[in-house]
Amino acid sequence: xxxxxxxxxxxxxxxxxxxxxxxxxxxxxxxxxxxxxxxxxxxxxxxxxxxxxxxxxxxxxxxxxxxxxxxxxxxxxxxxxxxxxxxxxxxxxxxxxxxxxxxxxxxxxxxxxxxxxxxxxxxxxxxxxxxxxxxxxxxxxxxxxxxxxxxxxxxxxxxxxxxxxxxxxxxxxxxxxxxxxxxxxxxxxxxxxxxxxxxxxxxxxxxxxxxxxxxxxxxxxxxxxxxxxxxxxxxxxxxxxxxxxxxxxxxxxxxxxxxxxxxxxxxxxxxxxxxxxxxxxxxxxxxxxxxxxxxxxxxxxxxxxxxxxxxxxxxxxxxxxxxxxxxxxxxxxxxxxxxxxxxxxxxxxxxxxxxxxxxxxxxxxxxxxxxxxxxxxxxxxxxxxxxxxxxxxxxxxxxxxxxxxxxxxxxxxxxxxxxxxxxx
Length: 424
Ligand code: EPZ
Prior knowledge:
Elements: E1 8-12, H1 17-26, E2 34-37, H2 43-55, E3 57-63, E4 66-71, H3 81-86, H4 94-101, E5 103-107, H5 120-128, E6 132-136, E7 139-143, E8 151-153, H6 159-170, E9 175-179, H7 185-196, E10 200-202, E11 208-212, E12 221-223, H8 228-240, E13 244-248, H9 256-264, E14 268-271, E15 275-279, E16 288-291, H10 302-310, E17 315-320, H11 328-335, E18 339-343, E19 346-350, E20 359-361, H12 365-377, E21 382-385, H13 397-403, E22 407-412, E23 418-423
Parallel strand pairs: 1-13, 2-12, 8-9, 16-17, 20-21
Antiparallel strand pairs: 2-4, 3-4, 5-7, 6-7, 9-11, 10-11, 13-15, 14-15, 17-19, 18-19, 21-23, 22-23
Helix pairs in contact: 1-2, 1-7, 4-6, 5-6, 6-7, 8-10, 8-12, 10-12, 11-12
The structure holds ligand EPZ.
């Protein structure tokens, strides 16, 4: 909020959404109980729990962030179609189901509105491991008596495909290579849980993951890594409001691309053992932001940094190289007074002196986060509608922002959703 409240203070990072979701799916690989600590209380986690419970898994919160999961001897092969439509990450159960029971059926997934979300790389890899795949319209049936190891080269370092294939390969017969694998920290976190379960996975975090199949896996206890995207969102909030925010309980190494970009824009960035801090008591400079697979700049922070660029000095070029259409936040930012032009996969942002609060609509999770950040910096009051998208990936966002000095409240709205009101 330029001229309004500068956010300052400290927040604690929650566990990573994009790690917790595949880890919950991985618990299907064993009949024994798994305990996951530092699981964020967010809607996508609740959805994933409904998915695995529908398959025959028992899930129980042992504590505010501790999940106990135990899937029985028998698992149903198909998650409910409405849940798969609601959340693309549901497709991550296919690998474990195939590895454990030899059958999985899925309807083509839904999820955020950020472009087509095919699963061809998942299908190609599972076929290479011996799965028979039949596509019947929107429903895909996978069958395999026993998966066998394969040497798989991904056309694109897909996070979900890498995770699904890692999990399927754990119980396959023989050795699997996943080449051009995704290198995100969440892949490393999944390898860590799988190996604690008795799997033999190597190479996560590099572009070649190697898995030697074993006959069965056991239960394990694992602490989920911190959410680098949540961390980056709060750092961007400091940047856009010219504040001073420290996020604790983080792994700074996972945030390097974000920290480097904010420093390049002129923010003062500092790191401690398990904390990162951004101070920006002055106007930042525009720059070029290219959203790429890890370790490049994360696409899940591209909308948030686009908001920061709206108020920076000069022109910024925001190139989205991961998703076909991830500029749904631009239209709403322009309604607040931003000067942005989208040409294909590039948004050209001309910095302006201020944004004006108004009623804006969040089309998806990260676009919603970008709009909240813009509202925090805008003059006057904003109403962010569709704020229920934010609940998918941010634990207690209004509470954490208020603790940093923002005046933000969530209001119940029609249809069980709520809006978030941000006032100057
Ligand atoms: C994961 O999605 C994350 N979600 C996304 O975060 C993140 O944006 C994305 O990885 C990229 O980092 C979870 O981990 C639950 P991809 P995923 O497979 O696995 C294309 C958020 O906001 N592709 O790496 O679906 C695809 O269309 C969410 O937290 C294929 O073409 O991402 C996209 O253009 C949003 N065929 C690109 O690859 C496939 O079979 C990246 O997709 C699979 C993917």
